[in-house]
User: Which sequence fits this backbone?
């Protein structure tokens, strides 16, 4: 029976795949096996684009799998391992390479180097062969170390030129929605439109899974052939600052990809507005802090993750008993008594919420997405200034001094920009404010999107159990400030409520009966009755005649109001 032989091929860069490396190594193995009557196996042992300088071919590559098969007896002792040269097995330091080389031989495997037809087996490893093998390993490691050092130096210089002179790094990867063109980049318009769609869907309140389902349902192709949209890929897009035109260099340390310095601004063409990017990041962070609310295609609790008992527990939907299966908001803790019937509470809470943005503006400092972006950049520059100042103190130089001066100049300009934006925000605050807009809450997707937008306005709703049949809901802004209180009175066939600002100003009264608002507390205005009916459980209110109603998104007006 012929002795089995296995051919192992490796090349460290995928650029070599298009060359002659793999074909040459296979040809040498076939020739040797034929000349020495070995049974060359078809088992593929190839590490394509895998480095032997760090030992990746053993820890996670085909050579490591070969060793495992020998250890469990799937590959018999006495089998041949055919390699072009010893540097295909390892380019690590001499001691590490020698240890792995001897480990393979000690397993009973015969190693043949095809470049010189040398044979290494445990039974006849004399001193001369050992010295020769060590010499080859040492030379291979030194060559790889020099190449690595030169490559790092070139890469470091390319990054410096990118920062200082705006030059594009030749061999760097770039986002899938653009391509290299001359000395820069050009956008792939079809891909950019998809990127904008993804950001708009996220901004509307949809999570990764729902966005992926939508894109796949619409047969919108990904940026790679024969693939579908998946949540992880969408996360990479939505959190990637390359859409803002930034390039963040990295370095590899102990096989870990580590950020290398500050991001390079305006490196790529910008495709997403900064304000939209920041809104999306805030929405993602908000959704990560709560349960999704989706269970079997439902989003029954519109306020999931927001409404809490005053004991600190999240309020949940549940039935009162086995007979009464209606949904009630209640605390899961048995010591907290009382509950609120959800179908009566939701429409009245929505009416209270339609007033909340104008009330929040009374308590909140002037702010805007643009101001938030400017403030964030200013904070980053101030942190960078501290870092560079520490570098200068440790090792003063003209180069660092020049960099300090440039950063200080940028900080001064950003401070001026922030001041201007604060003034503009203050002026806007005095103008009429569009209230929370509800177009429809029919589908789980629409209810989920509303929940996500609501989180941009409030941090939570606290339910306080009062004396008798009263419960109070206190609405808190994202700044943690109590801004509204809605006092519910529970009675046998429904709920009524009174809504107050925290200074005691009464805004309105609500009831379980459609249209849910007691009109005596509002100035005259006109309601879009069709829209109001569609939101409030599709009840027909066409016969209800009233004009003194104000409910935010239901009413086509933005004038300020208050009940005295």
Assistant:
């Amino acid at each position: 029976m012929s002795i089995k032989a296995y051919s192992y091929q490796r090349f460290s860069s995928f650029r070599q795949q298009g060359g002659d490396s793999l074909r040459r190594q296979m040809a040498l193995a076939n020739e040797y096996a034929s000349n020495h009557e070995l049974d060359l196996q078809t088992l593929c042992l190839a590490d394509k684009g895998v480095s032997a300088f760090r030992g990746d071919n053993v820890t996670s590559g085909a050579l490591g799998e070969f060793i495992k098969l020998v250890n469990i007896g799937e590959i018999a002792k006495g089998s041949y391992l055919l390699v072009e040269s010893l540097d295909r097995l390892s380019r690590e330091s001499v001691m590490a390479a020698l240890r792995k080389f001897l480990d393979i031989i000690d397993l009973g495997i015969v190693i043949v180097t095809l470049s010189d037809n040398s044979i290494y087996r445990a039974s006849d490893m004399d001193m001369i062969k050992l010295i020769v093998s060590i010499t080859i390993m040492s030379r291979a490691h030194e060559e790889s170390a020099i190449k690595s050092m030169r490559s790092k130096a070139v890469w470091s210089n390319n990054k410096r030129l990118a920062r200082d002179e705006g030059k594009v790094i030749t061999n760097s990867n770039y986002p899938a929605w653009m391509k290299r063109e001359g000395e820069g980049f050009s956008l792939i318009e079809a891909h950019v439109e998809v990127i904008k769609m993804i950001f708009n869907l996220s901004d509307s309140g949809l999570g990764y899974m729902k966005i992926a389902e939508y894109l796949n349902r619409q047969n919108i192709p990904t940026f790679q052939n024969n693939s579908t949209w998946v949540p992880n890929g969408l996360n990479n897009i939505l959190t990637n600052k390359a859409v803002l035109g930034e390039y963040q260099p990295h370095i590899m340390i102990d096989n870990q990809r580590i950020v290398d310095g500050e991001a390079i601004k305006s490196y790529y063409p910008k495709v997403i507005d900064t304000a939209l990017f920041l809104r999306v990041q805030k929405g993602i962070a908000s959704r990560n802090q709560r349960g999704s609310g989706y269970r079997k295609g439902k989003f029954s609790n519109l306020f999931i993750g927001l409404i809490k008992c005053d004991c600190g527990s999240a309020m949940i939907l549940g039935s009162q008993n086995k007979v009464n299966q209606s949904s009630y908001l209640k605390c899961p803790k048995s010591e907290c008594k009382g509950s609120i019937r959800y179908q009566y509470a939701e429409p009245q809470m929505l009416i209270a919420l339609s007033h909340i943005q104008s009330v929040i503006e009374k308590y909140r400092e002037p702010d805007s997405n643009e101001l938030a972006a400017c403030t964030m950049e200013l904070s980053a520059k101030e942190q960078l200034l501290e870092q560079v100042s520490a570098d200068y103190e440790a090792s003063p130089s003209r180069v660092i001094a020049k960099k300090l001066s440039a950063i200080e100049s940028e900080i001064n300009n950003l401070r001026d920009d922030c001041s201007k934006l604060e003034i503009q925000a203050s002026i806007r605050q005095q103008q009429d404010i569009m209230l929370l807009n509800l177009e429809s809450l029919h589908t789980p997707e629409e209810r989920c999107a509303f929940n996500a937008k609501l989180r941009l306005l409030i941090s939570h709703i606290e339910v306080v159990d009062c004396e008798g049949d009263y419960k109070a809901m206190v609405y808190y802004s994202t700044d943690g400030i109590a801004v509204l209180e809605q006092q519910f009175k529970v009675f046998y066939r429904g709920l009524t409520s009174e809504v107050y600002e925290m200074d005691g100003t009464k805004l309105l009264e609500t009831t379980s009966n459609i249209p849910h608002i007691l009109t005596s507390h509002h100035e005259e205005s006109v309601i879009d009755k069709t829209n109001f009916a569609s939101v409030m459980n599709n009840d027909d209110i066409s016969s209800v005649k009233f004009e003194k109603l104000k409910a935010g998104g239901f009413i086509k007006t933005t004038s300020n109001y208050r009940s005295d």
Summary: The first strand starts at residue 4 and ends at 11.
